Amino acid sequence: MKSISQRIKTLIILVLMYIAAISGAVIVFFVIPIDNVLIKMFFSDIIATIIIWTLGLLIKNASVYDPYWSFVPPLIVIGWIIVLQSNIKLSVILLMLAIVMWSIRLTLNWADGWVDFSVQDWRYTMIHNKHPRLWFIANLWGINLMPTIIVFFQLANAYYFLRAEPEVNLLIVVGFSLCIVAVFIQYISDRQMTSFRHRNHGKQQCINEGLWKFSRHPNYFGEVLMWWGVWVMYFGTYQTINILLLAPMAMTALFLFISIPMMEKKILSSRPEYKIYQKSVSILIPFFPLKRRICDETICNEKYNTE
Q1: Closest-CA residue to 157 (of 81, 234, 90, 96)
Q2: Is the pLDDT of residue 272 over 50?
Q3: Burial class of residue 56 in the structure, from the number of CB atoms within 10 Å of its CB (0-12 exposed, 13-18 middle, 19+ buried)
Q4: Where are the domains of the chain?
Q5: CA 216, CA 222: separation in Å to the nearest integer?
Q6: What pLDDT is stored for residue 1 in this prediction?
Q7: Cα separation values, 229 from 99, 117, 212, Å
């Protein structure tokens, strides 16, 4: 009972932190002397991130930023809809539905794993222990600002989509469908991993079922696919290739070259048998296994997390 009470208490404190951060962002948005709505929102987003980072420093836990990734994007899009006075057309509804569904699933997944302020993401702790003198900058840039900037870059596609208020066409429907499929891939892969861990609690076995048979990181794939879907909706509106194509490419690179290598290095440090799984299963995009192998050791029942 005490742990539940402590968990609720810290969640309430966390909510108050985010209210303070969002309030600061709103003030900046209306005070900053810039006419461009996209740039105004960018600076507001940065201010909110810095507030969360500062509060994280005060309680000595960088994980207070984790829900920012999924909680803030729909608020930004809603803000744009209000400021741009967008007509609530079917295309706008589809975009909002995709982003809200993604946000709800990811935020609930984060909340399910939340303990309290005594627990911090192992990656942040590793960075702190490995580079204690650079922790201040690494925390600000690597843990807080960089993810905020990358996600905002994805939302730029949504901004220009809202400005155009397009009629629904085939490409917009395809993009929306990719977003919905992405949400379900993330949900199913997380449920499959949770179920596997519960059924094999205390056992050393490898998950070789469901989506995890075809991708080593199906939930990461779902995250990447989500933002490609948003870009396809944007492309369906303007039907031109420009710098915004770099947005989903940057998100893909984030997982392929930072998140996944960091996760797999951690697993290999204690479970060298993971190499078997790596050789058998696609790193990200689901594909048929190169070799069907059953692991005798626990090499992949790690709780993968995008949050």
Answers
A1: 234
A2: yes
A3: buried
A4: 2-280
A5: 12
A6: 47
A7: 10, 34, 22
- The DSSP string of 21-55 is HHHHHHHHHHHS----HHHHHHHHHHHHHHHHHHH
Distance CA 195, CA 205 (A): 13
> What CA–CA distance (Å, rounded) separates 144 from 150?
11
The amino acid at residue 93 is I
- Give me the amino acid identity at 258: I
Cβ 248 vs Cβ 228: under 8 Å: yes
Residue 76 CB coordination number (10 Å): 21
Tokens of 244: 């915004």
Helix spans in the chain (H): 2-31, 37-59, 68-83, 90-113, 122-130, 135-137, 146-164, 170-199, 218-238, 246-254, 260-270, 274-280
pLDDT tens digits, 196-217: 888 877 665 667 789 999 999 9
